[in-house]
Amino acid sequence: MKVINIDQKKWTKGIDTLGSSYKLIGPVAEKDFHTFEILQQGQLPDMSFTNTRLSPKEVVFPQSEDMFVYSLDQNDEDCNILKEAPKDYSPRVVLGIRPCDARAMRLVKLNFDTEQYKDPYWLRLYEATTFVGLACDQPCATCFCTSTGCGPYHEEGLDILLAKDGDGFKAKVLTDKGRQLAEASGWTDTADDGGAFENARRAAEAGITSKVATDRLRQMDTLELYGADFWEDVSFACINCGTCTYLCPTCWCFDIQDEVHGKKGKRMRNWDSCMFPIFTVHTTGHNPRGTKLHRVRQRFMHKLKYFVDKYDQGIMCVGCGRCVQQCPVNIDIRRVCDLMNSYGSENACAAQG
Amino acid sequence: MGVEPDRLHFSWISSAESTKFVEVVTEITEKVKALGPNTHYVKKEAKVA
Amino acid sequence: MIAYTDKVRQIARRLLEDCSVEMVIGFRKGSQPMMNEPCFIKKAEDADQLVWDGNCGINLANYLTGRKEKIAVFAKGCDSRNIVTHIVENKVQRDRLVIIGVPCTGMIDKRLVASQTEGEIEAVSETGDKVVVKLKDGGSTEFDRRQVLQGNCALCVHRNPVIYDELVADLVEEQTDVDHWADIREIEAMDVEKRRRFFEDLLAPCIRCYACRNACPLCYCPTCFVDESRPQWLGKGQDQIDVHTFHFLRAFHCAGRCTDCGACQRACPVGINMRLLTKKLEKDCFELYQWEAGMALDQRPALDTYKPDDPEGFIK
Ligand code: SF4
Ligand code: SF4
Ligand code: SF4
Ligand code: SF4
Ligand code: SF4
């Protein structure tokens, strides 16, 4: 297979060159974990991370995002007119996004880019972004990407896939956007790698030991799962925080808020979470998801059943393991997925005789 | 939390103590004026991406 | 503390068998190293799911409110003080509870262990005073248990439960040689400008997931002031002022009630020590009113009583 060799010098130089035509975003070490941040001139992304504590969804779906601005000042000629908030949609590149997080963008796109509705904010940022992925050679014990239609060398959603090679990288260009970026950065040194890339992929996939079964979710009866007897046990420990959904690369819910300061105002959207009690409160005060059992069930049913049924693209989880690692009370989606996937299987076997 | 101590005053003044009230208010006004306008914990516009 | 597990199971089984309670709230083994999951047991035969070790840092008092069952709950020193606070604040009724006291020798700080370990951790076990970390690559490291305790546990002076119906083990010796307020004095000594920057740095990574609030047994309001929308007290975005307002106001709401159990800090996904805020108020309550939260059922909390000799130096 043809790959581009990028040694350390070319890497540093390429990044430096890219800085003039792209906004660079990459992993940066912060205290005891990594996050994706905008890189300053001359700053290199820290590619030694395992995975970032927060997912890079913030790159196209900021936690707080302006949608409109308005003025309430009668003397202002635009008074009472909602105007689109000025925003920067200039080309940007995310360096070192993991394949799971890139696939997550595609899953989110199913929701933000449909026949009827196109989310302009998300889509414009998505389109302005080039995704340079970094393959995972050392998956964690909590990674179960190979069970979710993804994998440590998965290419979906990426424009370029990098794999570590000594202190440099080997790169596989996957799209036109990727080609443009490779040219702009001067990463053009193509050579045949004698199958090394493929071998590394197989080794990495074999390194993922955590697996979940999802094969029966689709055929499962929704109401039966909804009424399953395990939800009380699953949800008991949950404290209804936003950790799992805020860290998750595939969670897309948001809440729209107006903020007025003096006579100027803005309409913004902020991440929201189905785990928060106020997520579904009606103006009447009624809350259809009034207990944490309802809310925990919603999170798992959305990811592992409703989404599966609606889009037929597998589960709404890429197996990044963030929620598993960071949930303060150790609610593990792998356990819940197994419970859901095997629910009623004993009875089903009995029924078949 | 980083608010200047002179910005916050507590006092106990009975409704009969008008002179004390004037004194305290004058003193507070002077102290706060000396500090100048508060620049922290004042939200002008929400900071968003 | 390993030996506690057998006793914990035994007590739970007995209480369920003789119908003294309808459910027992404790911990079961988690799927991650250094993580246990709070759980409930309703059948005596399930009691063997329960465990007790240095990874039971979540405060179980948080799971008692709003329940109708007669409950038995395992309680460390801090948990028991939060249960007292719940009883004093009429959130739970003493006669609906069986409190099983767990004399505590401190909980392990999983982030500290992870940050001091090279390589991925496969399993962590405790033997006496040692914490043994087994690595994925086959190696292992050993820590002195006291070196890897949660910050609050290392300085805890109430390790024994203050209220209980029975105990899983003999009471432990309380720590007397610790400087409980050292970190707070350091912040108090900063000048205004430096302190402001300190708090800015402290809270900068906050994503407002509210895990700290939700892990806290004190934060039981049906609608928290940050969620309230009529009137709306603060913005919901990532503006620094809104984030700070949340933290400072929440801390004030815990004044004279916080037991420094550390559940809030433990829960934070980005490792913020917001306990520094509540601890300052804990210190003030102690110095001004000689008050420590949740020590006895018959004392009214510092901020809910008036005494003629209350200090009033701040009033001019
Ligand atoms: S549900 Fe959990 S494991 Fe799945 S993508 Fe979200 S954070 Fe990752
Ligand atoms: S409903 Fe919940 S699980 Fe689904 S996307 Fe929204 S926050 Fe995530
Ligand atoms: S599952 Fe865990 S992370 Fe998610 S809301 Fe519940 S306690 Fe928080
Ligand atoms: S504020 Fe934190 S330390 Fe204090 S009682 Fe609540 S959870 Fe425990
Ligand atoms: S748990 Fe941490 S990130 Fe979440 S709201 Fe509290 S301080 Fe912020």
Summarize the structure in words.
The complex is a heterotrimer of chains A (353), B (49) and C (316). With 353 residues, chain A is α+β, with helices and mostly antiparallel strands. Helix content of chain A is 32%, strand content 20%. In chain A, strand 11 and strand 12 form a beta hairpin. Chain A starts with a strand and ends with a helix. By secondary structure, chain B is an all-alpha fold. Chain B has a domain at 5-35. Chain C is α/β, with parallel strands linked by helices and 316 residues long. Chain C is built from ten helices and nine strands. In chain C, the strands form two sheets. In chain C, strands 1, 2, 3, 4, 5 and 9 form a six-stranded mixed beta sheet that branches. The longest helix of chain C has 15 residues, at 275-289. Chains A and C meet through helix 8, strand 11 and helix 10 of A and strand 2, helix 3 and helix 7 of C.
* Largest interface, counted by CB within 8 Å of the partner chain's CB: A-C, 40 and 41 residues
Provide the number of structural domains of chain C.
Answer: 2
Provide the β-strand percentage band of chain A.
Answer: 15-25%
Q: How widely separated are the two ends of chain C?
A: 52 Å
- Main sheet overview of chain A: 8 strands, mixed
Cross-sheet strand order for the largest sheet of chain A:
3-2-6-7-8-9-1-10
Bound molecules: iron/sulfur cluster
Proportion of helical residues of chain C: 25-40%
Strand runs of chain C, count: 9
Low-confidence residue ranges of chain A: none
Query: Which percent band covers the strand fraction of chain C?
Result: 5-15%
Low-pLDDT residue spans of chain C: none
**What is the structural class of chain C?**
alpha/beta
Specify Rg of chain A, calculated over alpha carbons: 22 Å
Mean pLDDT rating of chain C:
94
